Amino acid sequence: NYNQIALSRLPISIMGDYTIQTIRNSSESKINE
């Protein structure tokens, strides 16, 4: 079912966005220091 595939991929995309934000924030913090 397409809906099941979309729901299963949604958490992955959310985690991916969260990981990217975390990496960006940590990189900016290191640069500022």
Highlighted features:
1 helix; rod-shaped; NADH-plastoquinone oxidoreductase subunit I; mainly alpha; 33 residues; plastid; chloroplast
Structure description:
The structure is a single chain. 0% of the residues are buried. The protein is mainly α and 33 residues long. The mean pLDDT is 77. The longest helix is centred in the middle third of the chain and has 31 residues, at 2-32. The protein contains 1 helix and no strands.
Order of helices and strands: H
The CA-CA distance between the termini, in Å, is 49 Å
Determine Rg (CA atoms, Å): 15 Å
Number of strands: 0
Tell me, briefly, the overall form: rod-shaped
Brief characterization of the structure:
By secondary structure, this protein is mostly helical. Helices cover 94% and strands 0% of the residues.
Secondary structure blueprint with pairings:
Elements: H1 2-32
